[in-house]
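Researcher: Quick one. two chains, 548 residues in total.
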Amino acid sequence: MAERTVFFLSDQTGVTAETLGHSLLTQFSGQEFRHVTLPFIDSVDKAREAAARIDGVSASDAARPIIFSTLVQDQFRDIIREASGLHLDIFDAFLGPLEHELDAKPTQEPGRAHGMSNIGAYMNRIEATNFALANDDGGITRNYEVADVVLLGVSRSGKTPTCLYLALQYGVYAANYPLTDEEFEAGKLPDLLLKQRRKLFGLTIRPERLRQIRRERRSVGRYSSVQQVRYELREAEKLFKRYNIPHVDTTEFSIEEIASRILDSTGVERRVRT
Amino acid sequence: MAERTVFFLSDQTGVTAETLGHSLLTQFSGQEFRHVTLPFIDSVDKAREAAARIDGVSASDAARPIIFSTLVQDQFRDIIREASGLHLDIFDAFLGPLEHELDAKPTQEPGRAHGMSNIGAYMNRIEATNFALANDDGGITRNYEVADVVLLGVSRSGKTPTCLYLALQYGVYAANYPLTDEEFEAGKLPDLLLKQRRKLFGLTIRPERLRQIRRERRSVGRYSSVQQVRYELREAEKLFKRYNIPHVDTTEFSIEEIASRILDSTGVERRVRT
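Model:
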């Protein structure tokens, strides 16, 4: 089957066009796609250049390209629309109905969905990222009283990337604390965590998967042994049960999915970007 | 003006619906929106629950709600469509044209756009995140030979969040190295950086903004003094010029915008998720 070229066009970062396009393209699993992102199309020259590039691909590929675009300004959209391909434009599709519904005119300013239009919300994301880094892996600051959520789990269960994603995507303050022999031998959680009990959320993972991940880090020794991995996961589970801590098995889930489940389960608010 | 409730509905994480919705809503800057994300609508019961919630808001709010939805399966979409509000559905709008263009049927499997449908690409993002953490702030590993890009800049110019974002969003291996008095006094970059010269990318920031950010961290002392901030930025600029290192002023840019500009300028490939 011929590979299709897919363009993601934007007057800003291209994140929205990419996200939309990927969601749709994953519905066609048998196909091969070549991705080309063309961001920052914010002048007539750049729009013409992009249109020429699309036409070039259209002339050389077996099938015409697919174009996901999020250009806000009519003058640039008009230029792109002349290029040969299947055009899927979210502003074309949805701006009209929204305009009518809200009885308001769109600003037509280059999309700031991923910009700093709301500086407060933006700084919150950066501060949340710094917080996640400072409170990673039971880190030094242990500022759990200002955390929105504190993730618990054994080493390599997915705590760190999930905290960073929660911070960057949603401005959520997420700390994490590793469960180790110390907690398992005591059979209880430390007081500094129990004081924040309603913020706790557990991550588990299946033993085989955890072994695989740990072996990539340290191929030999107790850390990635069957016995140790099983022991840690069993004891972590016991602690989650003892304190009635909600938890999720991360084996089959991406960080987006884990993050979304944590927010859904805890009711922590997304500090979104608009 | 009455606040509008906006729903983001998904059978998975809700990230696509949120991203799309935010891009469109930022075009209507005078309006107030209340955001409600309802992820993981993957059963008839959950679809009915969501529809009832939308109807409840519709009955109590002054204006009917706006619904951005990315439900793949017809049976759940049909239930949601009965709810009262403005429906903006990316699958309704774009799946038909794509189906026709590709001459293929969509799988109708719950969207895995933010899932692990491509385990290799997913693990790459996690590995890239670990890489960013290990190579943060001139960190211990200094694995610059496997980096895609190495960001340079003074303390608090935005290196760390940008590297983490590049990793989480695109699976790009981004290291960062802080420019300090050591480099400024020598008037040159260390050899381990010069060996990777084509990977270097600089971040600058305006002095006032940098002072503001630094003062939030340490309110007194040389670190956030006018003189020191100006000195560091001037010397960093000199180094960028000396070695002809592409760089961007981050003062007005979000991490999405910085990341997108870096990829655009360096030509580093997005290791995307589909």
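The mean pLDDT of chain B is 91.
Researcher: Thanks, that's what I needed.
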